[in-house]
Amino acid sequence: MNCKKAKFLCSQLLDDRLNERAKRALLFHLSICPECRSFYRQVKKIKELTSSLPTPELSPNFNAVVLYRLERSKASSRPHLIFLLKRRLALFLLPLVLIASTLIFVFHKKPDETELLRSYRREHFIYTLQNPLISADSAVKMLLISGQE
Amino acid sequence: MKKDFLEEKDEILVQRSKNGDKEAFDILVQRYRASLFRFVYHGLHNKEDAEDIAQEAFVRAYLSLSQLKDNSLFRTWLFKIALNLIRDSKRVEKRNPTVSLDSYIEGDDTHKESEGDNVEALEDDSELLVRLRKEIASLPNELREVIILRDLQGFTYEEIAKMVGCPLGTVKSRLFYARKILRERLSPFSGDEKDEL
Question: What's the whole-number mean pLDDT along residues A129-147?
Answer without folding.
Answer: 69
